[in-house]
Amino acid sequence: AVNLKGRSFLKLLDFTPREIRYLLDLSRDLKRAKYAGVEQKTMEGKNVVLLFQKDSTRTRCAFEVGALDQGAHVTYLGPSGSQFGKKESVEDSAKVLGRMYDAIQFRGYKQSDVEALAKYSGVPVYNGLTDEFHPTQILADFLTVEEHLGYLKGRKLVFAGDARNNMGNSLMVGAAKMGMHFVAAAPKDLWPDVALVNQCKEIAKETGAKIEMCDDMLKACKDADVIYTDVWVSMGEPEEVWASRIKDLKPFQVNMAAIKVAKSEVIFMHCLPAFHDLNTEVAQDVHKKFGLTEMEVTNEVFNSKHSVVFEEAENRLHTIKAVMVATIGK
Ligand code: CP
Ligand code: NVA
């Protein structure tokens, strides 16, 4: 049997395909129970601290609502709301928080920080995004793929964009674990780290997954079941990278040409926030400097029948709740 009690959720590499399967099934059960109004609370009396070095909408709200739905209490510590990382070390902070809370969510820069929190706090720690990985996002993405396409195994998932970022890395690992066909569509310089690619190819030997890199967008998207993209510049990256990213990734924009070479029932996914129109401050700023009105995805694709981005966003709630229930629930 699968038992995740007391476990941390730091990266998908730490989990077996069966354990990931278990979390996806639990997510689906919790979603159904909430919809039916029969959700059972398994986290009464628990306290969870949400520590953020970077901002968030979905991840924070999913942890807050997920915990409250299950009867737990949360404390939000934002980028400027605590001593963490400034006056107090990761190790000391972990020891303090571990004495007051039953679990810790961390979003930040270094993967080594979230790993250290788990090591020194003695309670389950959840990775709500680091520069390297965004594992809770992948659970929501895979639940969404299953809801729309029925199953994961053998499905072709193309990640177009900066495939070295947290999303490219995590999708590749998740796809390897679940036996999917993963393609990174990006120029060579933005392919995931070779060591991680090789690790995923090893996992793929066991699971039947296929891991590919491709620097030709239309070739990559041919017969795709899922086309996924993410922002071209991630949180924490310096302003200066915009110019080169735009130049490098323009050919990898998800537009109707990409959708047309994919399977007719292809779904478009994005972890969000997305740059698809000029209705944000960042977009207006980039527009002024570089003249673009859309970036990683066109507004047409974002709003098309292929787009499942808001269902994907909702599924952050059900999957993050499942991680908490599995690890600290009664
Ligand atoms: N997808 C995602 O993690 O969104 P937030 O940054 O809003 O949490
Ligand atoms: N790669 C993006 C993901 C946001 C959810 C970032 O790190 O900013």
Automatic annotation (TrEMBL):
Q: Which reaction does it catalyse?
A: carbamoyl phosphate + L-ornithine = L-citrulline + phosphate + H(+)
Q: Which GO terms describe its molecular function?
A: amino acid binding; ornithine carbamoyltransferase activity
Give the residues the record marks as binding carbamoyl phosphate: S56, T57, R58, T59, Q83, R107, H134, P135, T136, Q137, C271, L272, R316
Q: Which GO terms describe its biological process?
A: citrulline biosynthetic process; L-arginine biosynthetic process via ornithine
Q: Which InterPro entries match?
A: Asp/Orn_carbamoyltranf_P-bd, Asp/Orn_carbamoylTrfase, Asp/Orn_carbamoylTrfase_sf, Asp_carbamoyltransf_Asp/Orn-bd, Orn/put_carbamltrans, OTCase_ArgI
Q: Where does L-ornithine bind?
A: N166, D230, S234, M235
Q: Which PANTHER family match?
A: ORNITHINE CARBAMOYLTRANSFERASE, ORNITHINE CARBAMOYLTRANSFERASE, MITOCHONDRIAL
Indicate what this protein is called per its UniProt record. Answer: Ornithine carbamoyltransferase
- What organism is listed for this UniProt entry? Williamsoniiplasma lucivorax
